[in-house]
Amino acid sequence: MNLIDTTITKAVIIFSGGIDSTTLLYHIRAQGYDVTALTFDYGQRHRKEIDCAAKIAARIGVEHKVLDLTILNKVAASTITRQELEIPEGRYNEDIMKLTVVPYRNLIMLSIAAAFAASQWIPELFYGAHSGDHPIYPDCRPEFIEALNRTLAVGEWNPVRLRAPFSHMSKGEIIKLGLKIEVPYELTWTCYKGKEKPCGKCGSCIERLEAFEYANAKDPLDYEK
Hints:
- The chain has helices at 19-30, 48-60, 71-75, 105-119, 142-154, 171-180, 203-214; strands at residues 10-14, 34-41, 63-68, 124-126, 161-163.
- By secondary structure, the chain is of the alpha/beta class.
């Protein structure tokens, strides 16, 4: 499945170590891109995802940078950044999942990543927004992507193009694609609670499990009983 323009060979990707960004990383590498992966430490409780991102980047052999964005935890409170707040349990389509929103997180990360890309004369910036994020996360919606692309086009002499090739795909469809290109999902992390094992109850875990079911595949992670 060719979802991207392969005439450009260098790209930056926002890389969390989760299913969506890992599949996207493998996908654009398979399309011939020379990729730099940027992971952000924004004080997330599920810091295990940073270690997962490092392991995956090492396996696939891409340049990987972890950038300090912990100031975001100080200015934008969320259940996924504050230990004293309880992570909500339930599906993403429930209003309670809005408690997991870190205001403008993607805007801030993408702005920093765009600055990095422009400074390196890298014309493409990717992130793994998908259709399942749309109801809860405004900065994953097509209108956000379109608006930010317009801003990037006029905000720098060397503009960077934002790409989100999975934005109209479900997580299950993403996993189906990933299985075809042998994405190591056993190395990815999704759970917001950040314990030794994924909880299986938070919205992120439930969405992951349902996506594997949709793809007729077994999640390789071992969940809490």
